[in-house]
Fold:
Amino acid sequence: MISSNERTVKVILLFERIKGMVYDVAIIGAGVTGCFIAKELSKYRLKVVVLEKEPTQGIGPTKGCSGIIHAFQLPFNSLKGKLCLEGNIMMDKEADELGFRFKRVGLILVSTGFFSSLILKFAKLYLSRYVEVKYLKAERIREIEPNISEKVRDGLFFPTAGVVNPVEMTFMARKFAEINGVEFLFESRVTNISREEEFYRVEIDGKNDVTARVVINCAGLYADEIANMAGQKIRITPGKGSHIVFDDRDFSHHLIAVLPLKPDKKTKGGGALVTIDGNLIWGPSLIETNDKEDRSVYSEEVKGLIEKHSRAFSRIPEKPVAVYAGVRAMAGKDFIINRNENLINVAGIQSPGLTAAPAIARMVLKMLEDIGIGLERKSDVKKYEFRIRKEGELICHCRDVFESQIRDVIREGASTLDDIKHLTNALMGCGKCLPHVMEIMEEEGLQLRKDFSGSHMVWRE
Amino acid sequence: MTFRCIIAGGGYSGVLLSELLSEEGFDVVVADQYIRGGEIGLFSRLPVFRDYYNEFIAEYRDMGADFLKAVVRDVEGNERYEVTLLINGMKRREKFDFAFICTGCYDKNYFLSGIYGMRPAGIFSLQNALELIARGYRIGRDVLIFGEDRVLEVLEEMLVKLRYSTNLQGGDEVIVRGRERVESVLIDGEEFRCDTLIYYAGREEFNPFKLPGIKAGNINAKSYDYGNVKEDVLRVFKEFRKKCKV
Structure:
């Protein structure tokens, strides 16, 4: 006996299917992982929707990361280790296809003592089985990095390590997906997931519904809550990483890390990094926190970063311009990518998630094949062209940003101040141009928000 | 023979210097992205500031200069300067005998001002807060002003007049709390509820194109005290004149 309620559901589903309202795939979360999956799926004849609680893409762990494309990730036999190697190889083609900037600046891992120098030589033997690596003598390191400390004895060079602007990378993946038919619903918080027949009904903000055959959980820090809604268990623990940014462009040009002898929580990870635009980033640290939204930075943390990374150099960089923290979504040590019925969890994507993003997308595509979603490739996949003019008033003198650039990124979909900042580099110097940028935002009809849904900066009288 | 001078920046210092040089018989061009104004122009659009800077505003208004709507993008050479001007996005090169840099300064960033903790919306440097208010925005409701300078008392008086609730506090370090918007700040351990933080901990030279030339005014004084700014312009002018006579 079918209850009238069930009958109604069936009728609605039928109606939606006829109208084409049923999505093949609903992706929850528009971070780098969600956007790369969306971009990959947009090449196939599928109806795809991305649901994001914030007003724009890449606002969580994506924006807070360091922008590094890692050469490798230990252990090599872990899922993240494999996807990192795979993603690194894919990155040139991805950058070319999507139009984001990617530069293989290379990583130098340096030793500062007799024992670490010894370990370095053994490490080379082991690592060279998986990744391109060269041994560098101290003189050679000093030749390419003049500010390196006298204490540095030797080092390993990994030429395949690189840098990207994570916001740009994610934005370009979103745009590629969008022009190829993927729908993005921003400020759409998923509040419930229920299984009805062979479909998922995904509730947004407690009112609207989206019906989809497959749900992909890319909810980052909130992947546990999403899994929970579908009756599955994932545990996400937040791990804060602080950074300090210097505008000291000639200080160093590679990613530089000191080989830790006994890595512990305090000394593990991070390095003296560079950005795609030539600034320096020192960090990240790994600080335990109970709060998924804890992006605070304290003076002791900054002191700690400077103390730690200055060991590799003969001086400290000049002109600190910013400090920031990101929160990693950690689910134990490795990534969790699994399927439970037609719900795919892509969770715990901490470092090297940015590197792995294209490889994760490929892996998810295979999982969709296993589910039996028909993957028919489109013949007319469009390439997105990011057209930015440098015209009109010079707005940001420090980074040479013109009025038209800001208007163009807004018209292309940038919707918050931080979007504009990361996509144009305006406000990355002295910050004096903030009122002018905000006035342009207002003229273009944007809400004057910093990043999150409630982050209004100013109001009109 | 008349010498040609270019002054980068048409604020108070640039215009005062132009006036002084013109009196000495120099041929002076003042280049600025926005014909007239500078920081004195900003003050003249704000209540209380308008009165506090009255003397300088009046002086600025009464001075004349040969203005060029352009950004000085580059200055090269030693004897004679080859100057690259950016006019409506187009580059133009011109030769001058002397180049003066009056590009002013900007407020130290939050990090150098000792602002730590969270970075939600509602944190403004003094300069940006003033500019936003002058553009007709309301920047919050309960404002905590952090810093120690005479100008902050002027700011507080203005905010009260504009119906903000205010609290002026000095100290070494601020820790901001709040996720989307400022909720409170801790100053050296003491908590203050507010939705907006305005900080000021000194200023730095604004010269993003690293223009070489003779620096004058607030680029040297780095202050909200325009008495100091005026003094610097007069000093630079005196030294320049002495050199020219030799």
Q: What stands out?
A: The two ends of chain A are 61 Å apart (CA to CA). Chain A touches chain B at residues 244, 293-299, 302, 320-324, 390-394, 397-398, 402, 429-432, 434-435, 438-439, 449-450, 452-461 (CB under 8 Å).
